[in-house]
Amino acid sequence: MKSLTDFGYYFEDFTANMLKHVKNDFLKTDLESQELKCFLETNKDKYNIIINNLNNKDKEFINEYINKQQQLIQNAQDALYLAGYKNCVKLLRVMGVL
Prior knowledge:
Elements: H1 4-29, H2 31-42, H3 44-52, H4 56-94
């Protein structure tokens, strides 16, 4: 018999993989995301030139600031995905499917 810890591990692994697929599908089909990705790719060298012209202290601050923004956005996306997943399971229970 599988323990609750095993279930938690497999559930976390399953949701992480599903989230990865959802994000990839979204990026492939969402026009705004494609435009943003194109902008970032096109301006990557310009960004690096500007960052590399900063002193080390400012460069580290800018990079840390951007990383923290990205992490905050990622955390929000993960929370929304899991909330949707939980709501789907609740709906299936209410409908008697589960």
